[in-house]
Amino acid sequence: MSxxxxxxxxxxxxxxxxxxxxxxxxxxxxxxxxxxxSELQQNALxxxxxxxxxxxxxxxxxxxxEFGQGKPIIGILGEFDALPGLSQTATPIKEEVTVGAPGHGxxxxxxxxxxxxxxxxxxxxxxxxxxxxTIRYYGCPxxxxxxxxxxxxxxxxxxxxxxxxxxxxxxxxAPMSFSMQSMVSIKFHFKGKPAHAAAxxxxxRSALDSVELMNIGVNYLREHVPDGTRMHYTITxxxxxxxxxxxxxxxxYFLRGSSKEEVEGILHRVKNIAKGAALMNETEVESExxxxxxxxxxxxxxxELMYHNMLDSEPLQYTxxxxxxxxxxxxxxxxxxxxxxxxxxxxxxxxxxxxGVSMPGSSDVGDVSWITPTGAVTTTxxxxxxxxxxxxxTASFGTEIGYKGMHLAASTMALSAYDLIINKDNILEKAKExxxxxxxxxxxxxxx
Length: 448
Ligand SMILES: [Zn+2]
Prior knowledge:
The protein has 13 helices and 13 strands. By secondary structure, it is α/β, with parallel strands linked by helices. Strands 1-2-4-3-5-13-6 form a seven-stranded mixed beta sheet, sandwiched between helices. Strands 9-10-8-11 form a four-stranded antiparallel beta sheet. The chain has a two-stranded parallel sheet with strand order 7-12.
């Protein structure tokens, strides 16, 4: 069995990567500030003989580590940014490490590290067998603001890939047989005229009024958008004090839909509402486009391959102590009281993608999935009922529950990347054929 050497490598080396994931969890940094994790991973890969290129697309923390020669070229996508305000100890009660500090509530400490683990495992195998082909680890920053990979895509770094593989920590062991929504992140800055709000209100033009009028307009739009559309906003600038008519105000919108084209249509209407709001009370408006990622295109051929390799990997098993942690953490979750096998699934499942099935949520992996066939899985890294971006998620992703899920994902990606390197059963052609069919002749064009 040719894959046994890879599985053996995992048994002997996984502790190194538990340490790396723990280290990144201990040093969380938000989007575009992830220097700690980026440097840690770059150095580890250099030590393993990978060639590292950094500052990809002008982004300081973006890098690519490569090993091997010639075709095929297989990419593994990693992420490492944390979320603001989600600091939490690795305990089952809500308790910040540092009040107000960031935390790994989306498990990107695991996400990136599994990728590093996978490419190093595969490198050893390629060296041993003298295999031709290239493997790359993509250190992708700023997934949480949905544009790190878009900047990298604009630099063309995914263009020569034959396939890409990735994963995300969740509470299930299965391929991601669903599409994640396309999403635009955009700010509307209104500018009015300041005045004393009591002495001369008639002289003022309130930028905050325009923001409120705009939000009312968008809330009326809700009835007239496709099902599944998501429109959410926060007011990031609402003026300085009630007794000064606000000269400036800003509202920040996320708009999501099942495809980029659909979101473009919604965005067009929202921009008109902003213009209408400004006209109503004589202010001015400017928009600032921050991110616009594609919906993800699932790939059944790659997902099924990953499913079989997940089955071939070392199965998940938990100690008594880990189960007690999960039981205690679940006390604050909707899944409280469920039996352990339902709280912490070890089983592995696969269902083919049903076009039109879209998950409310977005990822800049969408952009890569429009450039090259992309396979993705999730593994159990937190108890069922844990919401990503919550303190319970941060807690779980800093324990053995998270690390065990991470090793399962790493092993799945290493074994699958091996099959892609040797092009087992013409898997590359099958994945490409499916990719072309789903893309339906449309070319990738970066949204920002
Ligand atoms: Zn995430």
